[in-house]
Specification:
Shape of chain A: globular
Radius of gyration of chain A: 18 Å
Oligomer: heterodimer
Largest sheet of chain A: 6 strands, mixed
Shape of chain B: globular
Largest sheet of chain B: 11 strands, mixed
CATH superfamily of chain A: P-loop containing nucleotide triphosphate hydrolases
Order of helices and strands of chain A: EEEHEEHEEHHEHEHEHEEHH
Helix content of chain B: 10-25%
Number of strands of chain A: 12
CATH architecture of chain A: 3-Layer(aba) Sandwich
Number of domains of chain A: 1
Helix content of chain A: 25-40%
Distance between the termini of chain A: 30 Å
Structural class of chain B: alpha/beta
Number of strands of chain B: 21
C-alpha cells in the first residue's frame, strides 16, 4: 500500500529525514516510535504534502502512484488521511459545513454522488454517537473552544467519514485521557480491513495496547534503526530508546 | 465661445454656469442659493489632494484628470432588471425612472427629488456642510434628482430597494443624486441600495444621502456597491439620529475602480444607536476607501463598527474611522474594529482610527489587524481533500463572517451573501463552504 524508499527531507535547509525506508502492506497497521526530534512529525507532514518540506532524495509510492508528485488535496482524495497532533482551529467555519464540504470534495473527486445536507447530518450523527460527541459539536466552529480530547475525537470523526485507505496518526494519543484514547483506538480498529492501512506515530507504547500493530519501527535521527513485532514496543517501554540507539550506532 | 476646461473642477463649475437656468429648481431662489453656496465651496476646495488630511490615502488625481459628460436623457429601454420582489425605485444615470420602478400602494411617501423639490426647502441640505466636504459640494451644485422617502410616525415601512444603474455610454457621464430619507417617531425602514453599471464603462456616481431618524425610529441601510470596474463611486452619507433611534449601515464595496464610502452619523438624543459594518472585496487595480465619522452628541448612546477588507492583486484599501465623544455624551459606549486580509504581496491597506473624547465617563475602544491567510489552516483544509482555491474561499468567508453576522436585517444579509458569492465567481472561484 505504502512504500517509502531512502527518503531524505529537510526544512529550512536542515536535514530531518536521512534515508528512511519503510513499507506498509495493504491491511496492516505499523507503528513508528521514536524520541523527540527523531523526525516523526516530519514524516507525517511529508507524506501528507505540507509545504515547506523539501524532499532531496528518495521516493514514496502509494499503491502504484507517486505520492510526492501530488498536491495535498489529491493525496487526500486518493485515500491518505493525516490525523493532526495539534488540529488547527477555524473560527467562522462551522464544523458541519466543513465536514460536508470535505466529504463532498472527496466524493466529487472520486466520481461519486454528492450527499445532501439531510443525508450528511444522518451520517455524521451516527458516527458522532459512536465517538461520544454531543450534537452541538456540529454547530460550533471547527475546533474552536474544543478541549484537547474533543479535537482528537473530531479528527477521528473526519477520518471515519472520509474512510481513507491510509491513515497517518501523528501522536494522536498525546494529551488524551484513557476514555478518549479508547475512542480513538476503537475508530481505528473499526476501519481495519484488507483495504485499510495505518501508520501510527507515537512516543508511548500505551496507544499500542489498544491498536495492536503488525509491525513496530524505531525512528532515530531520520532513519528506521530497528523493526520488529508488537513486542518491540514493550521492549522500548522497558529499556528506553537509548539501548537501541546505542546498539544501532 | 470661450474655451472651457474639459477636466477637473473648472469643467464642473463651467457645467453649473452653463446649465444654471435648466437644472431642477432653477426658479426657486433657495435652490439657487444652495447651488451657489455649493459652487463656491467646490471652487474653494476643488478635488481634494492627498495634502488634505481626510484624503491622505485616497488620490482623486485620476478623477480630476478625467473628462466627464452629461447623462443622456431617456435612453436604454432594453435594460433588463431582475423582477422586483420588493417596492423598488430605479435610477438610471442618476435620474428617476418611474416606468422601471414599482412603488404602488405604500403606507409611506416615496417621491423623486426633481418633482418634490418645491416642498423640500427645510430638508435639502439640512445635514450637509459643503464647505467641509468637496464631493458633497459638487453634488450640491449639480444634483438633478434623487429619492425622497418620508415614513410617518409609527409606520413600519418594510423593505424598499433603491437601484442605481449606469448605462453604457461613450460620454462618461457624471451624476450626483441627492437622496433624502426621513423616518418619523418609532417608524422603521429597510433601504437596500444597489449601485451597478456596465463592466467597462467610465462614469462617476457621486451620491449624497441625508437621513433623519426621529425618536425611536429604526433605519437599516444596506448598500451593495457593485459598480463597473472603470467607474468612480464617490458616496457621502449623512445621518442624524434622535433619542432611542437606530441607524444601521452595512456597505459592501466590491465594484468600481475607485470608491469612497464616507459616512457621517450624529447621535443627537440619548440612547440612540448606530451600527456601521462593511466589507470591502478588492481585486487587482481597485482602490476602496471607507471613512466614517461618528459624532456622539448625547449621553447613553452606543456605536459599533466592524469593517473587513479583503485585498487581492495590486489593490489598495483604506479605513479611516473617527469617533468624537462630546463632553455632554457621558456613558457613551463606542467600539470600532477594522481588519484586513491581504491575499497578495502587492496589496496595501491603510488604517487610521481616531478617537476624540471630551467626556470622562465613557467606554470607547478600537482595534485593527492586518494579516494573511494562515498556511496551517489552508493545509488542514487541503489535507481533507478541499482544493486550494476553495480552501482559500472558505477562509475568506470565515474572515467576513463577523461583519456579515452583525447585520441585523435578514433582507440585507441575504442580498449581501448573494453579492459576496457573485464576487467569488467573478474571481473564477466556484464554491466556498457547503451548508449542512
Amino acid at each position: 500500500m505504502l512504500k517509502i524508499e531512502n527518503l531524505h527531507a529537510s526544512i529550512d535547509g536542515k536535514s530531518i529525514l536521512n534515508g528512511l525506508t519503510l513499507e506498509i502492506p495493504a491491511g496492516e497497521i505499523h507503528a513508528v516510535m521514536g524520541p523527540n526530534g527523531s523526525g516523526k512529525s516530519t514524516l507525517s507532514y511529508v507524506l501528507a504534502g505540507r509545504e515547506g518540506y523539501e524532499v532531496t532524495e528518495g521516493s514514496v509510492t502509494f499503491g502504484d502512484i507517486d505520492l510526492l508528485a501530488m498536491e495535498p488535496e489529491e493525496r487526500a482524495v486518493a485515500g491518505v488521511f493525516l490525523a493532526f497532533q495539534a488540529p488547527v482551529e477555524l473560527p467562522g467555519v462551522g464544523n458541519a459545513n466543513f465536514l460536508r464540504t470535505a466529504l463532498n470534495a472527496v466524493r466529487r473527486a472520486k466520481g461519486e454522488a454528492e450527499i445532501d445536507a439531510i443525508q450528511f447530518l444522518k451520517l455524521a450523527r451516527a458516527r458522532m454517537k459512536v465517538l461520544n460527541m454531543p450534537d452541538d459539536m456540529l454547530k460550533r466552529p471547527v475546533n474552536v473552544g474544543f478541549s484537547g480530547g474533543e479535537k482528537k475525537r473530531n479528527e477521528m470523526l473526519q477520518m471515519a467519514l472520509l474512510s481513507p485507505k491510509l491513515a497517518l496518526l501523528d501522536e494522536t494519543d498525546s494529551g488524551l485521557d484513557i476514555d478518549a484514547l479508547k475512542l480513538v483506538s476503537d475508530t481505528v480498529n473499526s476501519l481495519r480491513g484488507p483495504d485499510f492501512s495505518a501508520l501510527v506515530i507515537t512516543h508511548y507504547q500505551r496507544l499500542l495496547n489498544h491498536i495492536v500493530p503488525d509491525r513496530v519501527h524505531v525512528l532515530s535521527a531520520g532513519r528506521i534503526i530497528k523493526s520488529g513485532g508488537p513486542e518491540l514496543a514493550q521492549e522500548l517501554e522497558a529499556s528506553g530508546y537509548g539501548a537501541i540507539q546505542a546498539a544501532a550506532a | 465661445m470661450t474655451a472651457v476646461s474639459s477636466t477637473g473642477p473648472a469643467a464642473f463649475l463651467g457645467r453649473h454656469e452653463g446649465l444654471r437656468g435648466r437644472l431642477p429648481g432653477a426658479a426657486l431662489p433657495w435652490v439657487e442659493a444652495l447651488r451657489d453656496r455649493s459652487a463656491a465651496a467646490f471652487r474653494a476646495q476643488g478635488f481634494p489632494t492627498r495634502r488634505v488630511e481626510a484624503w491622505k490615502y485616497t488620490d482623486l488625481a485620476v478623477v480630476n484628470a478625467s473628462v466627464f459628460g452629461e447623462p443622456l436623457t431617456g435612453v436604454d429601454d432594453a435594460l433588463a432588471l431582475p423582477a422586483a420582489t420588493n417596492p423598488r425605485a430605479v435610477f438610471i444615470d442618476g435620474r428617476f425612472r418611474a416606468d422601471l420602478s414599482t412603488l404602488d400602494g405604500l403606507a409611506y411617501a416615496v417621491e423623486n427629488l426633481a418633482t418634490a423639490l418645491p416642498q423640500l426647502e427645510s430638508r435639502l441640505g439640512a445635514l450637509v456642510r459643503p464647505e467641509e466636504q468637496a464631493l458633497a459640494a459638487l453634488n450640491g451644485m449639480l444634483f438633478e434628482d434623487g429619492l425622497v422617502v418620508t415614513v410617518p410616525d409609527g409606520v413600519e415601512a418594510g423593505v424598499l430597494e433603491l437601484v442605481s444603474y449606469a448605462t453604457e455610454s461613450e460620454r462618461a457621464p457624471a451624476f450626483h443624486p441627492r437622496h433624502l430619507v426621513r423616518l418619523g417617531a418609532n417608524a422603521s425602514l429597510t433601504l437596500v441600495e444597489t449601485a451597478a453599471g456596465p463592466a467597462t464603462a467610465r462614469y462617476m456616481h457621486n451620491p449624497v444621502f441625508e437621513i433623519e431618524v426621529a425618536e425611536g425610529g429604526r433605519m437599516n441601510h444596506g448598500r451593495l456597491q457593485q459598480e463597473g470596474r472603470d467607474a468612480f463611486f464617490l458616496s457621502t452619507v449623512y445621518a442624524r439620529v434622535q433619542e432611542g433611534g437606530t441607524y444601521d449601515n452595512f456597505t459592501l464595496n466590491a465594484g468600481s475602480r475607485l470608491a469612497r464610502n464616507e459616512i457621517h452619523v450624529a447621535l443627537c438624543g440619548p440612547k440612540a444607536e448606530c451600527h456601521m459594518n462593511g466589507v470591502q472585496l478588492l481585486a487587482d487595480g481597485q482602490h476602496a476607501d471607507t471613512t466614517t465619522a461618528l459624532d456622539h452628541a448625547a449621553p447613553n448612546c452606543s456605536s459599533r463598527q466592524t469593517y473587513k477588507t479583503v485585498l487581492s492583486g495590486k489593490s489598495r484599501g483604506v479605513f479611516q474611522g473617527k469617533i468624537l465623544v462630546r463632553q455632554i455624551a457621558q456613558k457613551t459606549d463606542g467600539y470600532q474594529m477594522n481588519q484586513a486580509l491581504l491575499l497578495s504581496p502587492d496589496a496595501e491597506i491603510d488604517s487610521k482610527p481616531q478617537l476624540e473624547i471630551y467626556a470622562d465617563d465613557v467606554k470607547c475602544s478600537h482595534g485593527a489587524t492586518v494579516g494573511e491567510l494562515d498556511a496551517e489552516q489552508i493545509f488542514f483544509l487541503r489535507s481533507r481533500g478541499i482544493p486550494l482555491e476553495q480552501a482559500k474561499a472558505i477562509l475568506v468567508e470565515a474572515f467576513l463572517t463577523e461583519a456579515v453576522e452583525a447585520v441585523a436585517d435578514e433582507a440585507i444579509r441575504d442580498a449581501l451573501s448573494g453579492a459576496v458569492t457573485g464576487w467569488w465567481q467573478r474571481q473564477g472561484i466556484q464554491g466556498g463552504i457547503e451548508v449542512a
